[in-house]
What does this fold into?
Amino acid sequence: MINPYLPYPVRIRDVRVATEDKSLRTFELEFINSEDARAFDYLPGQFAELSIAGCGEAPIGIASSPTEGDNLLFTVFRAGKVTSRLHNMNPGDIMGVRGPLGNPYPFDKIRGKNVVIIAGGYAVTTLRSTMIWLLHPDNRDNFGDITFIYGARTPGMLLYMQVIQEWEKSGQVEVYITIDREVPGWDRHVGFVPQIVEKVSPSPDNSVALICGPPVMIRFTQPGLDKIGWKGDQIILSMENRMKCGIGICGRCNVGPYYVCKDGPVFTKVQLDMLPKEY
Amino acid sequence: MLEKIVFKDKLDGLLDKLGREYGLFAPVKDGIHTVWTAVFKAGDLDWNFTNTDLSPKGFLFPQTECMLVFENDPGSTEGMILKQPEPEDRPKALFNIRPCDAKAFAVLDLVFEQDPEKPDVYWKEKRGKTLLLGLACNNPCPACFCTSVNCGPHHTDGLDILMQDLGDRLLLTPVSPRAEGFISDLDHASEKDIKLASELEQKAVGMIKGRVNMENIQAGSIIDVFEHSAWERLHESCINCGTCTFYCPTCHCFDIQDETSGVYGRRVRNWDTCMSPLFTLHASGHNPRGGKLARFRQRFMHKFKYMPFRLKGALGCVGCGRCTQKCPVNIDVRHVVNKINNN
Ligand SMILES: Cc1cc2nc3c(=O)[nH]c(=O)nc-3n(C[C@H](O)[C@H](O)[C@H](O)COP(=O)(O)OP(=O)(O)OC[C@H]3O[C@@H](n4cnc5c(N)ncnc54)[C@H](O)[C@@H]3O)c2cc1C
Ligand code: SF4
Ligand code: SF4
Ligand code: FES
It folds into this structure.
């Protein structure tokens, strides 16, 4: 019998400070047993419980794409108990990963469509995974135009800029990067993500939007999309609630009758509109 | 005819037989309380209890349960790697469990074993080896309303054997195949005794005056029930103590915590309660159920709206009445549900 609470043992392969304020670090994890790597069969949008024996677990979106190999990437904000311990861990340390948990973005359903990705702050993690996956030669032809809109407070708070520049250079994606306020030497967009979305004004025709960001960003992006004709079933969001089990049993992450861990974290706007706002 | 009969003063034979395979437990009086206790012979059993104060859910879902263990030593080769401990070896038989509490196990099966490929192994392992010998209620307690919530005083859901108390003797009906072996050598019950048992059942059903109505709750949209104006008044006296959730046989929410002592480390789960603000508090400080009303509402929405929605109509309440009896401010689940059902 598979024990869904038992994490796979992993070794920290690399730790990279991801932002100028050091509040985010990216961890590369390597499975200790190669059969576990095969069993960990995931798609972008799913998450995992990062498990530190003696400290606890925290649910974190998977930032790597399965097309990148067996190692997993997670970018973690130092928020509380488990994430702070994680920030103090080093390459070589042993920890655990439990998952993959939750549902990926609905790639089957959105086949053939244009994809607009809208990200704010460090919620970009699973959208990094998505972009890498979409741009992989096996998948790229199954989708239409790809637009990537991403913002952070300052240039130093933007994650994954190196790979984002590669996407830009490849000519396969329209990339819009923004920061909140002017900074000397910054030659890209300035303004909050919702403003940039209005400026870009992505066409809703045969399109879907994948949106991840803080609640305020989502709230203000919505009216802009509504105005240009986007419908609720074209808007796909990834939700967060406090979690423990990650498999729909411990009862804490519900939004109405749905558990974010098991039935989400990916929901359409139409689904959320029918539910209590308990998130 | 499957029904068997056994006289209460001849029960030792059955108990001995069970005792060879199972640790035996039954409700026994302890001062003003009725508690689950290890029993060894017929003389230990009590035949006049209504129900135990605490539900038997702790047998399958202990208040604190070790899930994983590890060697708390980063320097050791196997250190800091979480492992599953060996399960407890001796199976248990719960003698005289009430039908509502057995029904609660059947409901919890739907939760803990929702994913047959990856069930909650701790629940499944214990559930699979625990024998439930139920004692039908002839005198239901005043807070009971089991007949309104898919259960009844002589119901068999979740049981292995149903026992109906005919005074000096018990009528035994096997419910699951694994029960049959234990009662195969007992005498067959007479038509008269079978009839007497069904009369007792009807009488017990008639004694249950508590009713809850849920048609509008079931028919209404989630948002409509969630936004019902009555929550405001209903929640006012609740102090969010969580007593109701700890006594409830179907409340199953838990927390997971790690503990260490020297080189020994373990991960445990503890009963948790949706009445606590910490239950849903995000690390950012944001709390989706930050207010008392939201937490009070969640408990009832979960049992009477969300669970039926997820679990093909199964309710998260078996009508045992414990929450009503134990609430320090006299909140009555029947009153709450009936109010919310009125639109
Ligand atoms: C699906 C999902 C994906 C996420 N992806 C990322 C990510 O890619 N990067 C990132 O930095 N953060 C992510 N988070 C948020 C992250 O889970 C929390 O910041 C983290 O759990 C805080 O844990 P802590 O022990 O440090 O905090 P504490 O406040 O000490 O929390 C104690 C416990 O509460 C729970 N908890 C607290 N806050 C949250 C929360 N917001 N969500 C879920 N559980 C919580 C955890 O079980 C945690 O162990 C994600 C959350 C979810 C639900
Ligand atoms: S026992 Fe009563 S007061 Fe305590 S949380 Fe439950 S309903 Fe509220
Ligand atoms: S909600 Fe109350 S009456 Fe219903 S099963 Fe739980 S404790 Fe019993
Ligand atoms: S985290 Fe336990 S139910 Fe979602």
In short: Chain B has 13 helices and eleven strands. The longest strand of chain B covers residues 23-30. Chain B touches chain A through 54 residues (CB under 8 Å). The two ends of chain B are 48 Å apart (CA to CA).
